[in-house]
Design brief:
The chain has 4 helices and 7 strands; from the N terminus they run ααββαβαββββ. The chain has 163 residues and is α/β, with parallel strands linked by helices. α3 links the parallel β2 and β3. The chain is elongated and about 55 Å long.
Length: 163
């Protein structure tokens, strides 16, 4: 039997299907006990509209593998950060044409402060690698992305914002 951890690691993110939930850093833990498994996840933000789909996909994949008792727990602390995206996930984003986020400074424990700051100073184009890009819209097709355009190759692309 394949381990629950291996099964969970292959479940795709419903909003960014080039990434698994594991690539995205949403999977916090997988505990097996007999025919039962508990998966702990942290969504990318507390109001994530895809959280129920994530839970359903995890349950369906684990049930198909023969697990009878499946619990998917959600934890919000510490809050998810784009720093949790794996190197493989960052590579997949770029290959798909989405500029991966830069690093985020460590945050203190407790509530996440609302910080209004300008967009990342340098976002490289995932197609040609040029640092000469402009932000077209701070909001993209998902809450985690912005729309940008490369001034070198003129191609539009998404940028996953640093969170």
């Amino acid at each position: 039997m394949v381990t629950a951890r291996t099964i969970v690691a292959e479940v795709l993110d419903p909003e960014m299907p080039m990434l698994t939930l594991d690539d995205l850093g949403v999977i916090r833990g997988v505990e097996e006990e007999g025919d039962g498994v508990t998966v702990t996840i942290t969504p990318t933000y507390s109001g994530c509209p895809a959280i129920e789909i994530m839970r359903d996909d995890l349950r369906a994949r684990l049930a198909a593998a023969g697990y009878a008792r499946i619990e998917v727990r959600t934890v919000l602390s510490p809050p998810w950060s784009t720093d949790w995206i794996s190197d493989d996930g960052r590579r997949k984003l770029a290959e798909y044409g989405v500029a991966p986020p830069g690093a985020v400074a460590p945050r203190p424990a407790g509530p996440v402060a609302l910080v209004l700051r300008p967009p990342s100073a340098v976002v490289r184009c995932p197609r040609c690698g040029s640092p000469a890009t402009d932000e077209l819209s701070r909001f993209g097709p998902t809450a985690c992305t912005a729309l940008r355009r490369c001034t070198a190759c003129r191609e539009p692309f998404q940028h996953m914002k640093e969170l």
